[in-house]
Amino acid sequence: MAKPYDVGPGDQVHPGNPVTVDRYTPAARINHWITAASLVLLALSGLALFHPSLFFLTGLFGGGETTRAIHPWIGVVLFFGFLGLFLRFWRANLWKGEDGTWMRRLSDVLRGHEEKLPEVGKYNAGQKMVFWLMSVLIITLICSGLVLWDQYFAEYTTVGQKRAAVLIHALAAIVIICVWIVHVYAAIWVRGTIRAMVKGSVTGGWAWRHHRKWLRELVTGKGNDKGTGAKPAE
Ligand code: HEM
Q1: How far apart are CA 41 and CA 129, in angstroms?
Q2: Boundaries of domain holding 137
Q3: Cα distance between residue 16 and residue 189, in whole Å
Q4: Which residues does ligand 1 sit against, CB inside 6 Å?
Q5: Is the whole-model pTM more than 0.90?
Q6: 77, 115, 201, 219: which has the fewest C-beta neighbours closer than 10 Å?
Q7: What pLDDT does residue 160 have?
Q8: What number does the ligand 1 atom closest to the CA of 36 have?
């Protein structure tokens, strides 16, 4: 039997009516919400600087100058915030055999035919793709952002490098905003998910329905491809 790769510290099943399953520690949730807030603030301040028609958004940050000054610092917060999430969750986001099958049956995912999908661990293939895309995009944004941070790094880069960085930074920002919309939409669309990041726990029914392999691992204490077949109370 394989060892569970995706059971995090603090993940635990509590018998009762309903059964509840701890999914995120308070530290993981604080880490998540700091990261989420910084991305929202970055998107708003970045869009304000992106196009004259959006310049009015600088009003939220005390004007054009302060927006330009604090945008890179919020980027630093996002980078370290996401680094914390990355270190907590990277193992559980490793690509597994069932993820390819899950992706190929995306039409069943969208139609809500979950019984036709393979059992998945703590994260499904969609969540894993969002995780790795965010990782790559945040590295791209911080690297291109540093090239553009003239206040401290002007002398280390050429004008040509800055021109390329502006383009890469803007493209990566547009893509991460789209990925973020998918992430938030999925969190709202799959009922009972938001509670995982707010309260830290989910119901046994939610875990059984959406992340059965993870639940089996928690119940049996080991990575188990076949499972016990035991169904917890909803
Ligand atoms: C306000 C917007 C956001 C909401 C409502 C939200 C909601 C959630 C929820 C409910 C979960 C738990 C999902 C589950 O356990 O199945 C989650 C997980 C996660 N979120 Fe967010 N989130 C937001 C913004 C962000 C941002 C901006 C980032 C990163 C830039 C982010 C990164 C993550 C990561 C890495 C996980 C762990 C899931 C995984 O590893 O695939 N979230 N989020």
Answers
A1: 23
A2: 26-173
A3: 26
A4: 23, 32, 35-36, 39, 82, 85, 89, 93, 123, 127, 130-131, 134, 180, 183-184, 187, 193-194, 196-197
A5: yes
A6: 115
A7: 98
A8: 27
